[in-house]
Amino acid sequence: MRQQPSDLIVSTKSPATLLPLALVPATLFALLLYALFSVALPWTFSWPWIPSLGIELTVQVDGLAAQFLLLITGVGTLVFVYGAGYLADDPKRVRVFVLLLLFMAAMIGAVISDHLIVLFVFWELTSVLSFLLVGTHHEEESSRKSAQQALLITGLGGLFLLAGFILLSEIGGTYSIQQLIARTAMLPDDGRLPAALALIFVGAFTKSAQMPFHFWLPNAMAAPTPVSAYLHSATLVKLGIYLLARLDAVFSDLPFWEVALLTVGTLTAVGAAIQTVRERDLKRILAWSTVATLGTLTMLVGLPGNGAALAVATLFFAHALYKAPLFFVAGNLDHGAGTRVIDHLTGMRRYMPWTAAAALLAAFSMAGLPLSFGFVAKDALTIAKAEADVFLLVSYATVFVSGVSVAVAAIAAIRVFWGRDTVPREVHLHEAPLTMLLPPLALVTLALVFGLAPTLVDPLLGAAAHAIAPGFDAAAVDAAYDAGPVITATLSALVLGIGIYLGWDRLHALLDRVRIFDKLGPESWYWRIFKFLPRLAAWQTRQLQHGALPRYLLVLVSAVTLALLALLWVAQPIWIWPAWHTLTWPVAEACALIAAAAIASLFMRDHLVLLLVSGLVGYGSAILFLFTGAPDLAFTQFAVETVFVVVAAAVLVMLRRGGSLPNAAQPEARLRPFALVVALAFGATLTVLVLYTAGLPFDAALADFFAAQSLPAAHGRNVVNVIIVDFRGIDTLGEISVLLFALLAALPLLRLAHCARGRAT
Fold first, then answer.
1. Per-residue pLDDT reduced to its tens digit, 189-234
2. Residues 457, 449: Cα–Cα separation, whole Å
3. CB atoms near residue 103 (< 10 Å)
4. CA angle (371 as vertex; 369, 373 as ends), nearest 5
């Protein structure tokens, strides 16, 4: 039993304080409906967001995007109504609603973006907001771990996705999805395409919980029920499938595309269906069945033929209409019975009749029974398989997954509500409030209406299918249905599903004894890696952060020396001796001063004297700059060196008076020979580099560029200032940021020191 106690926090107070927030998605939903009836698709809008990087905020709303927008705003409205009742007593209710609003905005941005980089930005925002929502009750370890797992997997997938987008744009010469579709014919000839698609697959599979990344979704059920109903039935988990469907128009003819999606989708659907029977928590049962549906959707995207596009669009819609109500039902059971464990839930129709009615109608659709919208989706799926002439194994897999779906529907609607009431109760059983009943009843009623009259939604499904497969005739959706094959498929699934339902407990006991899933499955490897990383970090810290400054310097200088030698070896430069006649006496004297100060510092043991002697190196460098054509740099060096020496000397004197100045760190005796070798190698390498550079003819191209561009491009007459502020603006910003972060890190220490002085006085 993996039920989350925090999820049992439900409302007994008025939801009026949060209910008005439902007007936000409701208004967007109404505006969208009005626009769909008024303006023909597609809608396109473009605005130059970051012109210097070639990033445009291009909006493209076609049938597929419109379908997602309706689900995001429509289901979102009902989720907000439900959450107003469910979270009325939760002290974090405002935070959850704000995050849900932000999440809705991110989802809208993701599905309407035509630019791959903009899509990626919104994609990652959904991952971050999902992390915050799943970890709502972060005071509980299970919530923290679930949120962390979801973020690590989807966030890692996002990095792969970004690399895939960049590589794909390099191949296609554009970041626009519509332009990629227009250039479909030229893409397969590029040898980099399989690598780009593999990277995109990882991103999409992690987001949509495909094998082997599937396990994060059931664990994310630690989230409050309104979050699960919104993120895990209609929006977040389908974003990966949306991306695959969006790119299917470009790559559907590639064998790699087809085989990869068919294989991963089928394995995910079958594996999740088996895992479903291992659960006793109703919410986790629904979560695993969602993973199975996501696998089926991935498989459908990989199927060739236009019928598969219609099946994807129909199953997208049908799944949202029955899975969101079932998540609401699970939340109502929390509210009315205080548990989601099916062993403790029988005969609940006597206490929760309206919830039982919603569960029954949602189960009809999930099982794909006639007169439900799930039956329409099953019809489209059956026709898609027949058109594609898929492998027999894939066809058997879909029948098995459909049978398990029937069994899950029966568990949620019959076993929980219509069985005999034989379980002793310790809580007062009661029906959920109106705000928690209206959303599931509204969705199942809509599914029933669309099941009785699918022509009402045919234009939307046709437009979505046309967006996935441009060859699909959006006006011929009604002609695509064929009730003959689907009745045979439904009967097969029903027989199998009834058998699984009747033997659920025995199958559960049998599968629960099979521990190979727990020991060798992807989730077990995730936890092994998760436990290994802290040990690796601790070992690495012990090796690298030992506190011995001489060893730090030794490693650093060794690494730099090896890197320089490697560069010289790769470059194989042609040696040219510098022209010695250009060496003036002031420059030679400056070099002599630097060398003498550096050698003298080796023999100094007093900190203050060492500081003063090393300061001569800085002054010698300033003289060198002064006589080699860089007077501004020389004056800067003089000023910095003087300030540094004065301040450091003052600090050393204060430390010496306080008796807290430690002895100078000495290298370990066994390291001294190695340190001598490294020092000689480093010095010799730098000498060679300086001599080689001095022997090269001076290249004035860079200086000429800055001199020519400072005024017209940056509107500055001081070339040095322009270089620092404009041409190296990002570098300067980074340097300022480092100082700012260092100050922020030092603030707590300064505050502690201030408090300590206050206590002392």
1. 788 999 999 999 999 999 999 999 999 999 999 889 999 999 887 7
2. 10
3. 24
4. 80
3-state secondary structure 520-560: HCHHHHHHHHHHHHHHHHHHHHHHHCCCCHHHHHHHHHHHH
Collapsing DSSP to helix, strand or coil, 1 comes out as coil
Q: Strands 43-50 and 55-61, how do they pair? A: antiparallel
Report residue 452 CA to chain centroid gap: 39
Distance CA 575, CA 590 (A): 25
Cβ neighbour number for residue 427 with a 10 Å cutoff: 9
For 72, the token pair is 């995001």
HSE of 311, CA atoms in CB hemisphere, 13 A: 28
Nearest to 82 by CA among 213, 240, 225: 225
Instruction: Tell me what percent of the chain is helix, strand and coil, each rounded to the nearest 5.
Output: 75, 5, 20
The region, left, alpha or beta by phi > 0 then psi within -120 to 50, assigned to residue 86 is alpha
pTM of the model: 0.78
**pLDDT tens digits, one per residue of 34-82:** 999 999 889 998 888 777 666 778 899 999 999 999 999 999 999 999 9
H/E run at residue 162: helix 141-172
Provide the b/e sequence for 271-290 (b: ≥16 CB within 10 Å).
bbbbbbbbbbbbbbbbbbbb
Residues 6+ apart with CB under 8 A from 430: 335, 336, 351, 352
**H or E stretch at 56:** strand 55-61
Residue 571 has which token pair?
């470059």
Which class for 580: exposed (0-12), middle (13-18), buried (19 or more C-beta within 10 A)? exposed
- Both tokens of 523, joined, read 């989730």
